[in-house]
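Technical annex B. To support the medicinal chemistry partners, we prepared a structural model of the target in complex with phosphoric acid mono(formamide)ester, based solely on the information shown next.
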Amino acid sequence: MTNFLSLNDVTDLDALIQSGLDAKQHPFADQQLGRNKTMGLIFFNSSLRTRLSTQKAAQNLGMQTMVMNVGQDSWGLEMEEGIVMNGDKAEHVKEAAAVIGKYCDVIGIRAFAGLQDREKDYAEIVLNQFKKYAGVPIVNLESATRHPLQSLADCITLEEFKVKRRPKVVLTWLPHFKPLPQAVANSFCEWMNARDVEFVVTHPEGYELAPEFVGNARVLHNQNEAFEGADFIYGKNWSSYQQYGQVLTQDPSWMVTMDKMRLTDNGKFMHCLPVRRNMKVTDEVLDSPQSLVIEQAGNREWSAQAVLKEILKTI
Ligand code: CP
């Protein structure tokens, strides 16, 4: 694997999931692989899980890590080519990415969608500019349209907790007052469509995700109907894709409650975190044995380790 930007960079998904599960059993088995190698983690946005789990994974593999928050620890970075740099961005990505690539053997990038300009966000400018100019492998730590390390951790979690050969997995939109990116939901769709699961997406009208991510998933606007017999409920808020970046409703009836979980087949609740309690999902659900959110976040370490291991084999 030379980069990890999306599912497209994965040649054998079953093997990658198994590699994550193996890493969980034997975290330090590949300590030699990353010896004398450095991973840079570059954050344009906040993070708890991605920041810590990816550092931990790199360290498990024997790597050193460096973390930088763009605009706080560094100069603001200009992404546009050929621009007169008379604004607030003091450094161009052409130099910045190339310089970071001199210090690091692998670079992880987190850069969320701006939610102002759909075409620009979906062009993945930050990720692609780093890929173009860094000269070393790039790992997507959540970009404008995708969060593949999260999706791999989700796949690992589903594998661990499924009790049926082909479980029913439901992605449900949750209410939120702030516009949030579609990245986690897009990615989850993309990865679920590559797994042997019955995949259902439920959301209010107007929250349709981009067709290239939804694929052949069954889409329902009736959340209760979607939950019936489900084995896994994956909650996430996202802003509208059609009316790009808009919050069209905050309808609290879409919050996940224990009554709704009772419609499932003793289903498990998943969320990538952070989650706003009693707005998106009740305390009762999050604090119940049906919640997998902590296990899921724990698996972020093993998803990052599986990906870094594949990259380290190529450098
Ligand atoms: N799920 C996730 O990516 O969490 P952070 O934003 O805290 O990294």
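Notes passed to the chemistry partners:
The pocket of phosphoric acid mono(formamide)ester is lined by residues 47-50, 142, 150, 272-274 (CB under 6 Å).
The CA atoms of residues 234 and 270 lie 5 Å apart.
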